[in-house]
Amino acid sequence: MSNLALNYLLRSAKKNAYFTMNNPKYFTQSSIEEIKSLLKKSEHIVIISHRNPDGDTIGSALALKHALKQWGKNVTCSCINPPPDYTLMLPGVWEYVNDFDLNKTDLLIAVDCGAHYLMKFNETKPEILNKKIPLLNIDHHPSNDYFGSHNLIWPEAAATTFIIYHLLIEFDLLITANIATCLMLGVYYDTGSLKHSNTTSEVLTMNADLLQKGARHEEVIKELFHTTPINRLKLWGRVMQRARINEKKVVVSAITEQDFIECNSEPEDLTGVIDFLNSIPESKFTVLLNEDRKGNIKGSFRTQNNDMDLSRIAAVFGGGGHKKASGFTLPGKIDQEIAWKIRSNALNLE
Ligand SMILES: [Mn+2]
């Protein structure tokens, strides 16, 4: 059997012209047979989630861990930072470790790591990249630098959990209710609750299958989208209260370091609020500026406008990203400027 991604792409290409077949990168990937035999012969496996982990990297790692146990493997999930709150309902998440012993490892698997340095362990353990211990790199970011000894990169996949789902099916591993829950959380996270443009019919089909297999859908939705601590709500209140739409139809709001202190919150608490700002119908695009606690300014851009290319605007500030979502980080502080204008019938200024 040939490569899973290729097979899938071939099947999809017939239905959907969106999938392209002429990217030479697809042909330098490891075959499914190679990946399967690698997994089968390994006993002590460490799965690495990227730094500042999100729902996709945690969901992928845990789903794979539970599945590989069916083959009797000893699997450890590891990440330099702790899993975020909204993943704490996932089975096995409490067993995450922030370090591991390379001498007791015969296979490393990186999940959802868009570049080698996002594993972060390459700084303390540079030998993880020398390929003496095989490193299987499973990811969906187009930016991936193929750092593994084995690579399964599928840029059209909406999430890494989408790749893991197809991998488990290909390997005849049972997708239990626990595994389905981990996979579902990753897909909901990376598609913004099935709202982003990466929500293909294949994603919806997979989600229906996960639900049928017992995924705890309600719990996933509650943790991801309906859980907001009061400090975060207060911070979001400031973002919204300060929002202005200028004469160029750009929505702007800003949060200072002082705001974070007063709201007892962190820059991570801003995640998601820009989508509310970006819903003002007449706006061209939205900018959210914030200071962090390390003396940097972070700018985030969003638009619903198909004619905008926000990656170019972010590039002016040394940043980058996508056409509809981009950002930058610069050292510095932001100042508020208030303009006052005198309006009086006693004056004739025109
Ligand atoms: Mn992802």
How do the strands and helices of this protein lay out in sequence?
Layout lengths: L3 H12 L16 H10 L2 E6 L5 H15 L4 E5 L28 E5 L9 H4 L10 E5 L10 E4 L6 H11 L6 H14 L10 H12 L4 H9 L4 H13 L1 E2 L4 E6 L1 H6 L10 H5 L7 E7 L4 E7 L7 H7 L3 E2 L3 E7 L19
Parallel strand pairs: 1-2, 1-3, 3-4, 4-5, 7-8
Antiparallel strand pairs: 6-7, 8-9, 9-11, 10-11
Bound molecules: manganese (II) ion.
Could you say which structural class the secondary elements and strand pairing correspond to? alpha/beta
Tell me the total number of β-strands. 11
Q: How many distinct helices? A: 12
What's the CATH class of the largest domain, please? Alpha Beta
Q: Characterize the overall form.
A: elongated
Descriptive overview:
With 350 residues, this protein is an alpha/beta fold. It folds into two domains: 221 residues, Alpha-Beta Complex (inorganic pyrophosphatase (n-terminal core)), CATH 3.90.1640.10; 101 residues, Diaminopimelate Epimerase, Chain A, domain 1 (Roll). Helix content is 34%, strand content 16%. It contains twelve helices and eleven strands. A six-stranded mixed β-sheet has the order 6-7-8-9-11-10. Strands 2-1-3-4-5 form a five-stranded parallel β-sheet, covered by helices on one side. A hairpin with a 3-residue loop joins β10 and β11. α5 packs antiparallel against α6. The termini are far apart. Bound molecules: manganese (II) ion. The site of manganese (II) ion has 6 residues, from loops.
